[in-house]
């Protein structure tokens, strides 16, 4: 009798373990499938790419605006005789994703080792109800005009890797203990502190002309004088037209104002 009662118990236990193992496998498959960002890279210009053109797409954590973006995944490939749109896949480790952080995809196309197209807008993915599939529309990078000359080209390049502190906001000074900054972490990108919130976005620089568009920022609240300064600072950046670098001083002239934004180098 004992032997007869033991056999069904062993069989039932084996069936349960097999069911658990099967459930675990299905869960892993779903996780691996979700840990992919897919999309396409394209541009509007009717310009053919040479076969050796290099396309690079990156997935980065852009939550900290005062620090270089942390790259979670990257893919690089050549055109190989094909033309836009190009499809891409970025596989990432879901364990590195923090729900409160912001993640974005950007892309560049290089021709003859020079950046010819780049994303000039933010393409958020994964968190904050953002999708895992994006269509990246790149903008052609303007080459410095011949009239700008070598001096203008050198001035543009000199901004990359620099950091500046706002000293005067269009002739109105700045709020004490409410630091605003401007940084150029890499070619075509700007970041900094608005006074309360961190911000980032694309920067278009050609010769001595400069333009910021579609700036993104965190959403913290601060005392009203600081928030007012930040609002005016962002508004001024979005109307920027040209700049001058004079030693350790950077001046940015904005549309509608005869007074510049004045910064000192950090």
Features:
3 helices, single chain, alpha+beta, globular, eight-stranded mixed beta sheet, five-stranded antiparallel beta sheet
H and E order:
HEEEEEEEEHEEEEEEHEEE
Mean model confidence by pLDDT: 81
Structural class: alpha+beta
Please state roughly what percent of the residues sit in beta strands, choosing from under 5%, 5-15%, 15-25%, 25-35%, 35-45% or over 45%.
Answer: 35-45%
Rg, alpha carbons: 25 Å
Question: What can you see in these coordinates?
Answer:
- By secondary structure, this protein is α+β, with helices and mostly antiparallel strands.
- 22% of the residues lie in helices and 39% in strands.
- It has helices at 2-34, 149-158, 224-238; strands at residues 36-43, 54-61, 70-78, 86-91, 103-111, 114-119, 124-125, 133-140, 163-169, 181-183, 189-193, 198-206, 209-212, 216-217, 240-246, 249-254, 261-265.
- Strands 1, 2, 3, 4, 5, 6, 7 and 8 form an 8-stranded mixed sheet that branches. Strands 10-9-17-16-15 form a 5-stranded antiparallel sheet.
Summarize, please.
With 266 residues, the chain is an alpha+beta fold. It is built from 3 helices and 17 strands.
């Amino acid at each position: 009798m004992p032997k007869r009662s033991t056999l069904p118990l062993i069989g039932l236990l084996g069936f349960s373990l097999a069911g658990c193992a099967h459930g675990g496998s299905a869960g892993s498959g779903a996780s691996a499938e979700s840990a992919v960002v897919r999309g396409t890279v394209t541009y509007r210009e009717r310009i053919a790419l040479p076969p050796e053109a290099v396309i690079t797409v990156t997935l980065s954590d852009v939550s900290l605006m005062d620090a270089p973006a942390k790259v979670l995944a990257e893919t690089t490939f050549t055109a190989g005789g094909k033309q836009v749109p190009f499809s891409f896949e970025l596989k990432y480790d879901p364990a590195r994703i923090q729900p409160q952080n912001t993640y974005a995809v950007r892309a560049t196309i290089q021709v003859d080792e020079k950046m010819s197209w780049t994303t000039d807008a933010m393409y958020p993915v994964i968190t904050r109800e953002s999708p895992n599939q994006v269509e990246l529309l790149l903008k052609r990078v303007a080459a410095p005009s011949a009239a700008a000359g070598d001096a203008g080209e050198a001035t543009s390049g000199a901004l990359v890797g620099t950091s500046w502190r706002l000293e005067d906001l269009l002739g109105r000074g700045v709020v004490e203990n409410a630091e605003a900054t401007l940084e150029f972490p890499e070619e075509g990108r700007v970041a900094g502190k608005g006074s309360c919130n961190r911000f980032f976005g694309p920067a278009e620089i050609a010769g001595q002309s400069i333009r910021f568009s579609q700036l993104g920022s965190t959403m913290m609240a601060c005392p009203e004088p600081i928030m007012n300064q930040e609002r005016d600072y962002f508004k001024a950046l979005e109307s920027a037209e040209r700049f001058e670098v004079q030693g350790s001083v950077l001046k940015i002239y904005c549309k509608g104002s005869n007074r510049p934004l004045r910064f000192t180098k950090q």
